[in-house]
Structures
1.
Amino acid sequence: MTTVNAQPFVSIRRHLHRIPEPGFAEFKTQKYLLDYLATLPQERMEHKTWRTGILVLVKGTNPTKRIGYRADMDGLPITEDTSYDFKSEHPGYMHACGHDMHMAIGLGVLTHFVHHPVRDDLVFIFQPAEEGPGGAQPMLESEEFAAWRPDCIFALHIAPEHPVGSVALKPGILFANTSELFIDLHGKGGHAAFPHTANDMVVAAAHLATQLQSVVARNIDPLDSAVVTVGKIEGGTKQNIIAEHARLEGTIRTLSMESMHKVKSRIEALVHGIEAGFECQGSIDYGANYCQVYNNEDITLNFMDWVRESGTAELIECPTAMTGEDFGYFLEQTPGFLFWLGVNTPYGLHHSKIEPSEDAIEVAIRVLSGYLTKKAFE
Ligand SMILES: CC(=O)N[C@@H](CCC[C@H](N)C(=O)O)C(=O)O
């Protein structure tokens, strides 16, 4: 089994944790990663940037194919509430989805292969804007990516609910199809004391938020799975002014595209109903849409067998989750898989208190280095 000194990558993770940035604005993150790459021996390495992302080629000794690992880079608009002494230095932003861990692990694996080259070429992909508006699709269409397109590709995501030392996955559909959801309602504002002269968009938004919950409950086959979550409502300007505008922001998750179309058409019908019922105008924007994460059956089962046989980590066969990931677009074009990495913390992804166990960094570097070495000689 490969032994790994993960301490430098724990420090890297802590530095990255301090500088979370929004999608396509990962400027400090990109610079920090580039500065680290410059400290490595350059003989076997080439790199190039794509927008705020980075692609790194670690050259094989006698390459027959290219193997990819992808790490996402962006943070989330969350005010951090952890006990860390290396908290976010960017007010209102936090690495609450583990991308700091994913990048540190990527650098750890890359560093291992710079010092221990294998037969095949390895491509490390640091991708911006996973949380939105979605960096994978435009990156896949770029010339920079096309020149180093991998033949198979892997990624991981931290899993708060799984123990450190474990990896969890399944062949087939692992994550759902997603669509963002932004609904604007425009009515007639007015004085709080004269409601009969106005069309109150706070009341309309409240009705709509409640009605949206009927879509999954009443329009989707209970044996299928779907989610409609409204995560944010904004409306009004002052307590004694009737609001002329309200905005609902949410996300849709489905396991099939058929259900995605059904959910969207029901949402459109409900918004028309609100327009008629509250004499207002509604508009819907579906923002960024991600396709499902579909793990290639053969490669995933092969990896699961390898984990079991090598004893590199505890293997958990997990169910499908309604999370989304634009890594699904890589898997649509290139066979591979994504796995959950156990980080054992009571707070979930996107929570202001999440503190993933950093011991998982060593586990991930060990698993990925071991597996990619095997893969490079298959
Ligand atoms: C792993 C994870 O938490 N991914 C995000 C992906 C966001 C997709 C998109 N911006 C949306 O909100 O629909 C997730 O929320 O699952």
Note: The domain at 7-175+292-376 is CATH 3.40.630.10 (Aminopeptidase).
2.
Amino acid sequence: MLVTGLEILKKARAEGYGVGAFNTNNMEFTQAILEAAEEMKSPVILALSEGAMKYGGRALTRMVVALAQEARVPVAVHLDHGSSYESVLKALREGFTSVMIDKSHEDFETNVRETKRVVEAAHAVGVTVEAELGRLAGIEEHVAVDEKDALLTNPEEARIFMERTGADYLAVAIGTSHGAYKGKGRPFIDHPRLERIAALVPAPLVLHGASAVPQALVERFRAAGGEIGEASGIHPEDIKKAIALGIAKINTDTDLRLAFTALVRETLGKNPKEFDPRKYLGPAREAVKEVVKSRMELFGSVGKA
Ligand SMILES: O=C(COP(=O)(O)O)N(O)CCCOP(=O)(O)O
Ligand SMILES: [Zn+2]
């Protein structure tokens, strides 16, 4: 059934488990995520970025909202990284039940003002809002420690920000970054910082850039002809610890992309005569579904629907 993001996340934070927000750009990802959620009896968030909205248009948004309404588990349809008020309005018009306004690259006062404006519009139509404070972008190794610190979420600022904006959940910058290259060795998550934020912010907290980028998947991608450098993701134990400290929404996109693409390459490589898309998109869909199920087990959302 179609519910708001807050309905899913408030329960998750209160009961100490995480809920996956999985990005979709097409029919196969959407089917894989929803089938996994129903099999695992897990709530789930279907996330569409602005890039997804541009790529799939109304064919994608109509399909996602309609399938979420029919789902046998709670599903929120979420705008990921909305960059403007106008972009959020488009998602509201499409029937989304959760929207992110990401003004984390702006100064604090601009972020507060723009986020507050979105909260007023979204709340007026019963939709809940994710905001972001702190810079998620990959922080290069050469950046000085104090500069890095300035880019991560400041706990006291987070408290004031949430009080002034009325946002429903908060994406925090605690060391993760988008994509397959999250840092050398075991990428860094600042759990002590997260603990301080969670003590001051009772709202559900959100972790972006949370993909695990498992080496087995990286190897399978390479073996199928894919090219990828020294990829690394967030260790499962670090995710579990972050959930125990207050993270309720965990974003996963890269792992799904790697799984899907590895299987497309692998199937086509093994069957050079194949040109029926169902024969190579089907196995890829199954691979995405397995990744989603394993993430739900890690997050603790199995059986929570
Ligand atoms: O946090 C994440 C994904 O994190 P991950 O890369 O660790 O999976 N996201 O918000 C996904 C962002 C996807 O945006 P786009 O469609 O423009 O490429
Ligand atoms: Zn993100």
Note: The mean pLDDT is 95.
